Automatic annotation (TrEMBL):
<keyword id="KW-0808">Transferase</keyword>
<feature type="domain" description="DNA-directed DNA polymerase X">
    <location>
        <begin position="81"/>
        <end position="431"/>
    </location>
</feature>
<dbReference type="InterPro" id="IPR018944">
    <property type="entry name" value="DNA_pol_lambd_fingers_domain"/>
</dbReference>
<keyword id="KW-0479">Metal-binding</keyword>
<dbReference type="InterPro" id="IPR028207">
    <property type="entry name" value="DNA_pol_B_palm_palm"/>
</dbReference>
<dbReference type="InterPro" id="IPR037160">
    <property type="entry name" value="DNA_Pol_thumb_sf"/>
</dbReference>
<keyword id="KW-0597">Phosphoprotein</keyword>
<keyword id="KW-0460">Magnesium</keyword>
<comment type="similarity">
    <text>Belongs to the DNA polymerase type-X family.</text>
</comment>
<dbReference type="InterPro" id="IPR027249">
    <property type="entry name" value="DNA/RNApol_mu"/>
</dbReference>
<dbReference type="InterPro" id="IPR001726">
    <property type="entry name" value="TdT/Mu"/>
</dbReference>
<feature type="binding site">
    <location>
        <position position="263"/>
    </location>
    <ligand>
        <name>Mg(2+)</name>
    </ligand>
</feature>
<dbReference type="GO" id="GO:0003677">
    <property type="term" value="F:DNA binding"/>
</dbReference>
<dbReference type="InterPro" id="IPR022312">
    <property type="entry name" value="DNA_pol_X"/>
</dbReference>
<feature type="binding site">
    <location>
        <position position="356"/>
    </location>
    <ligand>
        <name>Mg(2+)</name>
    </ligand>
</feature>
<dbReference type="Pfam" id="PF10391">
    <property type="entry name" value="DNA_pol_lambd_f"/>
</dbReference>
<dbReference type="GO" id="GO:0005634">
    <property type="term" value="C:nucleus"/>
</dbReference>
Length: 432
């Protein structure tokens, strides 16, 4: 039975280690027909002689197919529903807390560990199930071990119940408020959105809207509501520029039934026709009384200036609108938007929903589609793979190959995966 390490392009026997300077392992799952769970073994590559390899408890019994557990999340299929939510939810609380403390490295480490657990084909029952899996650092393993043995983690529960964590979660939950602003407010003694109102805190326009519609924006947005908003957006776009393509993005494109906001990507097959489109869409929506808040930014991306010289980032530079829609309760029956006064607080007959509108040139639409589908970690890992493994720069605008010194064009997501040397993973399995 053989495995292949892509980078080395060498065949080798699983479960054997070269005693001289081994390279990092590839972890594989071997599922069998006779046993309920796959067995774990580790494959090592080496440029040395095969005679120097020695076995390391491969535990290979019966016939079956190997499933490689690869280290990059963009190489793995990660479904929405998985077997280890009791572990991943704990790790994601620690990841969020690390973000609140401005420790991006620790946050990413916890999220990578959670991503590996999401991709496992079975429920973790013991630490032996995790032997040699990638991306599971000592801290993550300690948390997992405690949950497996005691049912919970003291660190996770202490974090979840801490005043600091709860205050950061409440304040960063305000539309327009980031971690640094929330941290400053907490140091000033503020803990909740109500405190911002009570103390007369100076807020910008986005934050004012975020506080005003806070309770509504905390409610989950259902797929049915997202589809109603899609109908409104389609009506707006088609009224000002017929022939556009409109896609529902983010978690809903990955198959989620609920989300915290709704994202749309818009383009026109005739390059250039999309220029200035956003302002026309916003004007139509305002005339219909749909918008409670909006802020529009222009497309500032210039390929010759923002290409390979600029490091890959999850922030693109498309023309976009960050907005809050008013979705009237009657929309569930008529599919139409409310036409009452924009800018006033929602009454009992409507609700506020966060909506992002993004306009992309047609030549960049495949890259924009990939970038706006998520998940956040999946996109981060795609950019890391491109840079570290392929010497390429990937963004939501383009893909640049530094070895060939050229831009690689693509009309579909499949073509982008092919350029990167990756197996295509459909949106429904990008929930890393």
């Amino acid at each position: 039975m053989w495995c292949r390490r892509t980078a080395a392009q060498q065949r080798f026997r699983p479960g054997w280690r070269n005693t001289h300077a081994p390279l990092p392992p590839i972890t594989c799952w071997r599922s069998t027909h006779t046993q309920p769970h796959p067995h774990l073994f580790t494959c090592w590559t080496s440029a040395g002689s095969r005679r120097a390899w020695r076995p390391i408890n491969p535990e290979l019994n019966g016939d079956g197919a190997e499933i490689l557990m690869k280290s990059y999340a963009c190489q793995r299929r990660t479904p929405l529903k998985h077997h280890n939510a009791f572990l991943t939810e704990a790790l994601e609380i620690l990841a969020q807390n690390a973000e609140f403390n401005d420790n991006e490295g620790r946050s990413v480490a916890f999220r990578r560990a959670a991503s590996v657990l999401k991709a496992l084909p079975h429920r973790v029952k013991s630490m032996e199930d995790l032997r040699c899996l990638p991306c599971l650092g000592d801290h993550s393993q300690r948390v997992i071990k405690e949950i497996l043995e005691d049912g919970s983690s003291r660190e996770v529960e202490s974090t979840r119940q801490s005043e600091q964590f709860q205050a950061m979660k409440a304040l960063t939950g305000v539309f327009g408020v980031g971690v640094r602003t929330a941290d400053r407010w907490i140091r000033e003694g503020l803990r909740t959105p109500d405190d911002l109102i009570r103390t007369g805190q100076q807020l910008n326009r986005a934050q004012q809207a975020g506080v005003q519609y806070y309770s509504e924006l905390q409610r989950a947005v259902t797929r049915a509501e997202a589809e109603l908003i899609m109908a409104i957006v389609e009506a707006a776009v088609n009224s000002v520029l017929p022939g556009c393509q409109i896609q529902l993005m983010g978690g809903f494109r990955r198959g989620k039934e609920v989300g915290h906001d709704v994202d749309f990507l818009i383009t026109h097959p005739e390059e250039g026709k999309e220029e200035g489109l956003m302002l026309k869409i916003i004007s139509w929506l305002e005339e219909q009384g749909v918008l409670l808040y909006q802020k529009t930014t222009r497309n500032s991306y210039v390929e010759r200036l923002d290409g390979p010289a600029r490091s890959a980032s999850n922030m693109d530079r498309f023309e976009r609108c960050f907005s809050i829609f008013k979705l009237h309760s009657s929309a569930s029956r008529s599919g139409s938007a409310s036409t009452s006064e924009s800018g006033s607080a929602c009454d009992s007959g409507c609700r506020a929903v966060r909506v992002d509108l993004v306009v992309s040139p047609f030549s960049q639409f495949a890259f924009a589609t990939l970038g706006w589908t998520g998940s956040k970690l999946f996109e981060r890992e795609l950019r890391r793979w491109a840079g570290q493994e392929k010497q390429m720069t990937l963004s939501s605008h383009t893909l640049y190959d530094s070895k060939q010194n050229l831009y690689l064009r693509a009309q579909t997501e499949e073509e982008i995966f092919a350029h990167l040397g990756l197996e295509f993973i459909p949106p429904s399995e990008r929930n890393a």
